[in-house]
Amino acid sequence: MRILVTGGNGQVGWELTRTLSALGEVVSCDRERADLSMPQTLKALVAGVAPDVLVNAAAYTAVDKAEEDTTSAALVNAQAVGVLAEAARNAGALFVHYSTDYVFDGAKSGPYVESDPVTPLSAYGRTKLDGERAVAAAGGDWLVFRTSWVYGPRGRNFLRTMLRLAAQREQLSVVSDQIGAPTSARAIAQWTAHAVRQSLAERASGTFASGLFHLTASGSTSWHGFATQIVDAARRALGDDAILARRVEPIPASRYPTPARRPANSLLDNTAFERRFGLWRQPWDAAMQDVLDDVFERMGELR
C-alpha cells in the first residue's frame, strides 16, 4: 500500500510520515514537491504517485497574515484542497484532510458538535471552511478531521514559544478567556493512523462512509492554563537556571489584540469520532507532558 502525505515537513505531516509507515510505503512531500499555492501542479503529482491513501497535512496557517493575504490562504486552504480531493477520487484513494475549530465563532457555551452552524470570524477560518466544502463536493471516499490548538516539538507553535519566552523573561502575560483543548501533532498522527487502518478495512468490506469528525485531545484549558503547565513542567525538568519566568499573568484577549479574531470557545465534541473509530483520546495535559519529555531529553543531550 502507498500513502501520499503532503505538508510532510510540517508539525502534523512530520509525525504522520513516521506513524503511517507502519501501514505501508509513505511518500512524504514537502512544499517543494507539493506546493499547494500552485494547485494546477497537484493532479500530476497524485497521478504519478498513484496512492491508496492521500493525507493532506499542508495548510496556510498564518492566521493573522491571512487577513491581508486572503488570496494565498484561499489557494492553499480551499482551491488546492479541492484539487487534491478530486485527484484522490480519480486515483481511487482514500482522502484525509484536516480542518479547524476556527470554522466556529466561539459563542457557544459548550463543546461544538459537527452539525453546529459554522460562522468563522477570520479569513483563515473561512478558507478552511471552504476547504471542507471542497472535499465534500469532490466526492469519493474521504475523512475530514477538525482539530484545535495544535503543537509539537517541531515548528512554530505555542508550546515552543512559551519555552523560549520562559527562558528569557521573568513574567509572561497570557490570554485566559479563550478555552480549548491543546492537541499534539503526535496524537493527531496516531489517531489518524488508527482511523486510516479501520477505514481501509471498511472500504474492503464495502461498509465505508465518508464523514467529518472532530478530533482533539480530551479535557480543556485556557491559553493561560496551557502556558502555566508548560512553565511548571520546564522548571521541574530544567531548573531555575534555565527557566526565568516566575509568574504567568492571566490577561483578557482584549489586552492582546490581533488582526484575526479568535473564537473564545474552541472546544470540540469528539463523540462522533469515538463512536465511529472506537478510540480513547489522551487528556491534553498527559499528551503535553509526553511531548515535553522528548523536548527536555533533547535539551539534555545538547548540554
TrEMBL record:
One GO BP annotation of this record: dTDP-rhamnose biosynthetic process
Keyword terms: NADP, Oxidoreductase
Cell cycle among keywords = no
**Per its Swiss-Prot or TrEMBL entry, what cofactor is needed?**
Mg(2+)
Does Thylakoid count among this protein's keywords?
Answer: no
Biochemical pathway: Carbohydrate biosynthesis; dTDP-L-rhamnose biosynthesis
Family matches, as InterPro entries: dTDP_dehydrorham_reduct, NAD(P)-bd_dom_sf, RmlD-like-bd
What name is this protein filed under?
Answer: dTDP-4-dehydrorhamnose reductase
What gene is this protein translated from? rfbD
